[in-house]
Amino acid sequence: MSLLSTLGLTILIEYPIAQIIWLLLKKFGKDDGKGNSKLTFFNGLLIIVPVIIINALTNPAINLYARALWSDVDMSEETFWFIISLWEVVIFLVEGLLYKFMLKTSLLRGMLLSICSNGISYLSSFLIK
């Protein structure tokens, strides 16, 4: 798959998950009092722009790395997926921090958005391949 189609598919998978989690946090969670981000719409309820920006930063990076790793290094498929899984943890942490700052929310909320959306997206990759 091309980088653009991989990015598009990732956004299609991750955005609805992140959006639902965000709405649940807004509705049932205690407001963390940090204010609304200028990157959101409808009083901070719609978070499509941060999701697109974050995925545009992280998804091509890991896909380019995976392609280079697979083509340049002789390794088993199990080793390859182990290394990629470790990098996915790094991506989860980076995206959690980006959500925190882009949405002006708590670190916990940012990490929750990241783990839910990335976890389902990562698991979906095994079904799609």
List its salient traits.
129 residues; mainly alpha; 4 helices; elongated
Structure annotation, total helices: 4
Q: Could you tell me the radius of gyration in angstroms?
A: 16 Å
Rounded mean pLDDT is 87
Protein structure class: mainly alpha
Q: Report the order of strands and helices.
A: HHHH
How far the N terminus sits from the C terminus, by CA atoms, comes to 10 Å
Total strand count, please? 0
The major beta sheet can be summarized as:
none
Characterize the overall form: elongated
Residues in β-strands, percent: under 5%
**Multimeric organization:** single chain
List segments where confidence is low: pLDDT < 50 over at least 5 consecutive residues. none
Written description of the protein model:
The structure is a single chain. The chain is built from four helices and no strands. It is mostly helical. It is elongated. The chain starts with a helix and ends with a helix. The model has no long low-confidence stretch (mean pLDDT 87).
